[in-house]
Write a structure and sequence with these properties.
By secondary structure, the chain is of the alpha/beta class. It contains eight helices and ten strands. A hairpin with a 2-residue loop joins β2 and β3.
Length: about 260
């Protein structure tokens, strides 16, 4: 995994606006960073934690924000009741902000509901945008005002801390889907999804492929240097689909690179 491209991918990922989430957004574009900022990244983190690490290092690398607290677990009688992702401070205004971070990949299933908001689901259908936003609203953000948080952050005037959400999202629509979605979602669409049978039918000799590891999801496929023919990836795809796991595939044809989720459902 190329560190610079991984960092750049986080900075380029679309952040959902207030009109979708109902939360004040924190955009990474607010960070005053040097061009081509780079730092060491651990190699043993899962994707979500890797994204958290990158955002943390970006804040620390900026000239206008700093991290006061990060990944603070709140526990009661040895039982963890939640975690505060970040409390950051604007170095100029001194304003403290409780910032929650999400880094998600959602697929649009128009058959779920007549309300588009309810149709964004995880690649394996075991989570959704709506569930995540409900959890943030009912659990994550209220945690800051709990008695446990007051005890944990004794030196912070919590009633003066603002709250914001950095919801980095990459969206995928069905193959050859023609209906229009709202601009809030359209700008976050980076690819499409398709089942294995249809994916196989679409193959031709001009196409080459790469199956990124999960910690590479969201990176720019055009920066990839290793490409394989269909025969070299077919066995791996079949194995993963049999395990009822969706997988991301990068496809290259005549210089054009695409993000494609191959689904099992």
């Amino acid at each position: 995994m190329k560190t610079r491209e991984r960092i750049a991918s986080i900075l380029k990922t679309n952040n959902l606006d207030f009109t979708v989430t109902g939360f004040q957004p924190f955009n990474l574009s607010e960070l005053d960073l040097l061009p081509d900022v780079e730092f060491q990244l651990p190699t043993n983190l899962r994707l979500g934690h890797l994204a958290e690490k990158i955002v943390s290092e970006l804040i620390k690398s900026s000239s206008n924000y700093k991290v006061i607290y990060e990944n603070v677990q709140l526990s009661e009688e040895r039982m963890t009741i939640g975690e505060i992702d970040f409390i950051i401070q604007n170095k100029i205004t001194k304003q403290l902000t409780h910032m929650e971070l999400a880094y998600k990949f959602y697929l649009y299933d128009p058959g779920i509901s007549s309300k588009p908001m309810n149709n964004w689901i995880g690649p394996n259908r075991n989570d959704s945008l709506k569930k995540k936003l409900d959890k943030l609203k009912k659990k994550q953000f209220p945690l800051l005002y709990s008695d446990i948080a007051k005890e944990k952050f004794r030196n912070v005037k919590l009633d003066e801390v603002s709250q914001a959400l950095c919801f980095l999202v990459s969206l995928f629509i069905p193959f050859e889907y023609k209906a229009k979605l709202s601009p809030d979602f359209e700008k976050a669409i980076i690819g499409y999804y398709i089942n294995l049978e249809s994916f196989t039918i679409q193959h031709n000799a001009d196409k080459t492929y790469y199956l990124p590891a999960k910690k590479e999801w969201g990176m720019d496929p055009s920066k990839n240097e290793v490409w394989m023919n269909f025969n070299e990836i077919e066995k791996d795809i079949n194995t993963i689909i049999k395990e009822e796991q969706a997988l991301l595939c990068w496809q290259k044809e005549n210089g054009l690179c695409l993000n494609i989720f191959i689904i099992w459902w």
